[in-house]
């Protein structure tokens, strides 16, 4: 189907279907600004297969299936989403004094919805994901190299959630300029 063309019959009315991969979004994201996730979330390990429905501001954003061993995460707006254990551990670390609470440290590359309309996409986990005209389109990157890990893993982040949980990552040269001067090691 053509990007922005006639949506599949099961896409919610009012949303324009876009195949972001076919539109070259992966290439766009390789040059997009890098953002670091911050803040705390609560998370639990799924013990059985379960459907997780993500609601943002009272609207369904997406559905996903958590399999045993996956993490079900609850974000700052009460939204829930699913990550495989290996992805979760690469993006979150436990907060020692708060059982079930994790600190985010993952990175993404993201751009504002290039269509400036309500969009529906098919994320890597299947089904549909819905975004408002101001939503962000993102892919995760390696926390050290800032290179996208999988350009087929393109997803939507609600603008309010994005603003509350991501901040621009300093370019390496800016980070080096603001880094404290190391204390020299005494030599004998």
UniProtKB/TrEMBL annotation:
<feature type="region of interest" description="Disordered">
    <location>
        <begin position="164"/>
        <end position="188"/>
    </location>
</feature>
<protein>
    <submittedName>
        <fullName>Uncharacterized protein</fullName>
    </submittedName>
</protein>
<dbReference type="Pfam" id="PF14083">
    <property type="entry name" value="PGDYG"/>
</dbReference>
<dbReference type="InterPro" id="IPR025688">
    <property type="entry name" value="PGDYG_prot"/>
</dbReference>
